[in-house]
Structure to design on (440 residues):
């Protein structure tokens, strides 16, 4: 009897083991594949997400399968939004509305874990890992409504205080607009703001445009003529139609509206006084002074770029003529002409051999080595560049010492002069010094 009983126990245990190996276990190869893998469930109450992965790494496949299931739910939600809003799906840029909505939906779905239901998982070596998720449509709408109400409360709090200047309100609009866009999933959220009722983004955009249109640069700070390397003071004040200070804004000074020359910071009251050194080539130059956008949100910045206040003016830039004085023992016209041409290519002003009250001098200094038994004259030399003014001469730059040889002193010094001219050409240190010379 004991043997019969033991045999029955053994049969029962074998049955349990076989059941675990081939029955309903998701980890077994012989378990029956769920129907939802090959035929997606349908229904109007839920967004369905089914995803699978088969890389051979079970842990990795589990993560990928779940991520793909979430992505399918996000795609279903986006498809319903797309049909209701008639979104232009050809706009695939990262700044486009379709991309923004799709990304925000995906992010919200991944955050709303409490609303997601895991309806089933499946794994086999042959099929990999699979996930079946669903999201109740009414619960999704309820969560989004709660998000919208929270956002409305945040934005109302942002505008509850009185702003000290126009810039501070523009910055707050920028933050509120970014908050709205970061939570935008295709539903227009309405609010009562600035004495009006409407969609949050529309009201913020209108208010920002009105504030910018109320800013004014009343003084055109450009003289009709300027001279190269002249220092000019740009002075003025940005006024606000709101009857308050404009704030510490930034003005962009540009040439032909394409080449930024500098940025002018304003004081909290909108006033500015900025020293600019003319570096443009002689001729007619179109200057513009444009308010730099106070917005960080790229969409808001792009929409309001046209409204930024600006002033412009055409200015005649006169050439700055500086006389080149050459000091060299045995100076000839050929050396002077070579020097004039070489330096003219490097200076931000125009060198001339005519008289001028603005002058620079290039000097060559030589000495020879003691006589040797070979009959070769060895000469050493340096060159110096100095600025000549009423106060006297001020040395700006000097070369390294160069040496060369020749049959005569003149020949040796001529070769040294050639080397020194090479030192002048395309010398970055010298170019920087010439850029910084003050003649005014």
């Amino acid at each position: 009897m004991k043997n019969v009983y033991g045999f029955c126990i053994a049969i029962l245990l074998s049955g349990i083991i076989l059941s675990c190996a081939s029955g309903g276990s998701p980890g077994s190869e012989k378990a029956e594949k769920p129907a939802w893998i090959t035929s997606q469930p349908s229904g109007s109450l839920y967004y369905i997400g089914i995803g699978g992965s088969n890389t051979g790494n079970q842990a990795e496949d589990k993560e990928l399968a779940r991520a793909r299931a979430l992505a399918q739910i996000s795609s279903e939600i986006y498809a319903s939004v797309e049909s209701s809003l008639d979104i232009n799906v050809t706009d695939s840029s990262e700044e486009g509305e379709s991309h923004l909505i799709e990304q925000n939906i995906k992010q919200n779905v991944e955050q709303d874990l409490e609303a997601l239901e895991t309806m089933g998982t499946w794994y086999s070596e042959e099929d990999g890992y699979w996930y079946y998720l669903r999201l109740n449509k009414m619960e999704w709408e309820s969560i989004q409504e709660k998000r919208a109400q929270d956002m409305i409360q945040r934005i109302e709090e942002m505008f509850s205080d009185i702003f000290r200047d126009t810039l501070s309100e523009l910055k707050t609009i920028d933050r509120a607009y970014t908050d709205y866009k970061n939570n935008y999933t295709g539903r227009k959220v309405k609010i009562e703001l600035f004495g009006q009722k409407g969609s949050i983004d529309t009201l913020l955009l209108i208010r920002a445009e009105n504030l910018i249109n109320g800013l004014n640069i009343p003084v055109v700070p450009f003289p009709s003529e300027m001279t190269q390397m002249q220092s000019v003071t740009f002075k003025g004040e940005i006024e606000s139609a709101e009857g308050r200070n404009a704030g510490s804004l930034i003005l962009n000074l540009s040439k032909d509206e394409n080449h930024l020359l500098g940025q002018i910071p304003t004081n909290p009251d909108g006033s500015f006084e900025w020293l600019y050194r003319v570096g443009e080539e002689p001729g007619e130059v179109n200057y513009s002074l444009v308010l730099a956008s106070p917005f960080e949100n790229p969409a808001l910045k792009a929409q309001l770029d046209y409204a930024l206040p600006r002033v412009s003016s055409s200015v005649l830039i006169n050439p700055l003529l500086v006389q080149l004085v050459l000091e060299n023992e045995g100076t000839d016209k050929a050396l002077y002409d070579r020097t004039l041409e070489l330096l003219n290519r490097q200076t931000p002003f125009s060198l001339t051999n005519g008289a001028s009250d603005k002058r620079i001098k290039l000097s060559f200094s030589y000495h020879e080595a003691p006589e040797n038994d070979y009959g070769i004259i060895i000469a050493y030399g340096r060159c110096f560049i100095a600025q000549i003014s009423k106060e006297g001469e001020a040395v700006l730059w000097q070369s390294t010492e160069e040496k060369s040889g020749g049959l005569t002193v003149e020949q040796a010094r001529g070769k040294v002069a050639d080397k020194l001219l090479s030192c002048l050409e395309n010398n970055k240190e010298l170019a920087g010094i010439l850029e910084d010379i003050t003649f005014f």
